[in-house]
């Protein structure tokens, strides 16, 4: 059974830190690159960071140096994390995890809301 559950969001002031977590259950996740996405109100979903099984990471330019993606692969579940430091109001969005490849997208989780006030 494929399931994505994100957690760890919150409301905080600019300059603060949060650590998001994602539990991705299903064999499709453990064998593929994973990613964090975010969607701000009125905007399209945006790729934020990716992490391969070899722990090779990449980031959108707006979060480089501030966000760190990591993963732990369990038997049938990938635990994906996003450490977010020096948060800015423009980071406000609902954050989701899923595979990096859109060809593998099935369902999405409920996401976790991050709100950064100035």
Verbal overview:
- This protein starts with a strand and ends with a strand.
- It has 118 residues and is mostly beta strands.
- It is built from one helix and ten strands.
- A hairpin with a 5-residue loop joins strand 5 (46-51) and strand 6.
- It has one helix at 27-30; strands at residues 3-7, 10-13, 18-25, 34-39, 46-51, 57-59, 67-73, 77-84, 93-99, 112-117.
Unreliable parts: none
Mean pLDDT: 96
How many beta-strand segments?
A: 10
Assign an overall shape: globular
Structural class: mainly beta
Number of helices: 1
Strand content bin: over 45%
Q: Give the strand order, joined by hyphens, for the main sheet.
A: 2-10-9-4-5-6
Helix content: under 10%
Order of helices and strands: EEEHEEEEEEE
End-to-end C-alpha gap? 41 Å
Q: Characterize the biggest β-sheet.
A: 6 strands, mixed
Provide a short characterization of the protein structure.
The protein is mainly beta and 118 residues long. It is built from one helix and ten strands; from the N terminus they run βββαβββββββ.
Features:
four-stranded antiparallel sheet, globular, 10 strands, 118 residues, mainly beta, six-stranded mixed sheet
What's the arrangement of secondary structure elements?
Blueprint: E1 3-7, E2 10-13, E3 18-25, H1 27-30, E4 34-39, E5 46-51, E6 57-59, E7 67-73, E8 77-84, E9 93-99, E10 112-117
Parallel strand pairs: 2-10
Antiparallel strand pairs: 1-3, 3-8, 4-5, 4-9, 5-6, 7-8, 9-10
